Known about the structure:
The chain is of the alpha/beta class. The protein has 14 helices and 12 strands. It has a 12-stranded mixed beta sheet. α7 (160-171) packs parallel to α10 (197-207) and α12 (256-268) crosses α14. The longest helix has 13 residues, at 27-39. The chain starts with a helix and ends in a 14-residue tail after the last strand. Residues 108, 111-112, 115, 117, 121, 152-154, 184, 217 line the site of iron/sulfur cluster.
Amino acid sequence: MNWKKELANNITTVDELEKALQKEFSKEEKEKLNEIVKQYPLSIPHYYLSLIDKDDENDPIRKLCIPSTKETDLTGSFDTSGESNNTVVVGLQHKYKQTGLLLSTNQCGMYCRHCFRKRLVGLNSDEIMNHLKEIIAYIKEHDEINNVLISGGDAFLNNNRIIHSYLEDLSSIEHLDLIRFGTRTPVTFPMRINGDQELLNILREYSRKKKIYVVTHFNHPNEITKESIKAVKNLLNSEVVLKNQTVLLKGVNDNPDVLATLINKLTAIGINPYYIFQCRPVSGVKNQFQLPLKEGYHIVEKTKSKLNGHGKCFRYVMSNKRGKIEILGNLSDTTMLFKFHEAKYDKDMGKIFQLDIKDEQCWIEEASIK
Ligand code: SF4
């Protein structure tokens, strides 16, 4: 089936969800869920829903796609890393000198409950690219930019004509070394890739002009299925490089055995682990999914003890307004060590710093970094 028709079949209402799960929500629960999906839309491909163990209320896949009444807790922020302040042309962020970040769409194959761009996915298009010409002109003028990340939403939710025009324009810019796509479609909606030879041909054609990286977002070993493996194989056959970023999430992958299984399986199918992200304090997400930093560090270190050298090729990081900060580890029971892996300001480049961290602390404020 054509992927657009398949996407149009996604579960998008609480009534449809009840039917698909063969479960009736209580009246109160249903009212709350209806309120939540008005604010944070619901969209689940039937494929992804089929990965849930319907008898297990704590199923990790369920947590990733089905709204929870906990989403009504709005403590936290909608823009935890100051993305809107880094916008230089509508749809283009330039936070790190060498990287242009393009918000190409506010659509996704699925709306993940832990998304850090909840402020815009499926909702707001104010920050979404609407003039590619201006963006290309900006990138051409800034030869310090050596790579462009096409993100969203989900970059592969753009149609092939648009993807083709991005690649045509960007691949002709000499100072770009590579073009990256950020997509969760291999995980949540692999039919976008497996059912579309035209997309694969475009990727292969432009991979030969400019290196293309596709950054996927697998969070749990149950997401590695026949279909997702096929999508990965198809992408590799199109000569792109595959990397994966995972978000460390309470109740989903906060277990070294789960995380190690995920990473070992990813390396086995040809995806290089890139980042493990500390979950951001996003409104509607924080309360449900965030783990304390100290606990996160222990989970990641235990995970590493089960991985080979290739599996360990990731960094455990958090992205805040000043940069991407690597969480290096515990110095004592009360102190942790951090390092700027990427920095918005020159003064922070490579800076190593220590902070007193409370046991339950999940984030660090920019102002506390001296
Ligand atoms: S696919 Fe990515 S951008 Fe879209 S909802 Fe999921 S995490 Fe957010």
